[in-house]
Amino acid sequence: MLASERFRTHLLASFALISTCPTPGLAETNPDATRTPTEQAVGSHDGQHDFDFEFGNWKVQLKRLLHPLAGSNSWVELDGTSIVRKVWDGRANLGELDVTNGDGHIEGLSLRLYNPQTHEWSIYWANRRDGNLGMPPMIGQFRNGRGEFFDQELFNGASIQARFIFSDISPTSFRLEQAFSADGGKTWEPNWIASFSR
Hints:
The protein is mainly β.
């Protein structure tokens, strides 16, 4: 190999090495430079343990709107229990809801799965009455002690948006609200308000 060819080969190898080495201080001045677009969008919060507050047994008081998105103001109240179990060291959990009143009874199962790449949870729901796993799941995450989860689904033949909000979280209580929107999220009508206590 001629000296000029060796020099060119060495020069190309040096450029290749330089291009694969991080610039000193770059991570400190631009932390997003080494993060994926999803990590940049949702932050680096590891939400694997966001539902840990809910593990165990709870008393539940539930208010349910009988006819959502119909201009109705007829609510029913049910009381009962909720039991939530940790799965996969907190990256999943199973919740059993059992509430009743003199006229109705709801037995439901929730499955929550954590995605460590997106830092988001998927929430699936099944009702004992029909035995089907509700699709699509609600997707979202917790920020500043509040969990927000959304999906788009069919309700009475129309496409709507649905939202869960977990709020007022303490060691002995929390609140869950489900709401529907028929106008693309401009307005929301709550239809399921549950208060949980130890």
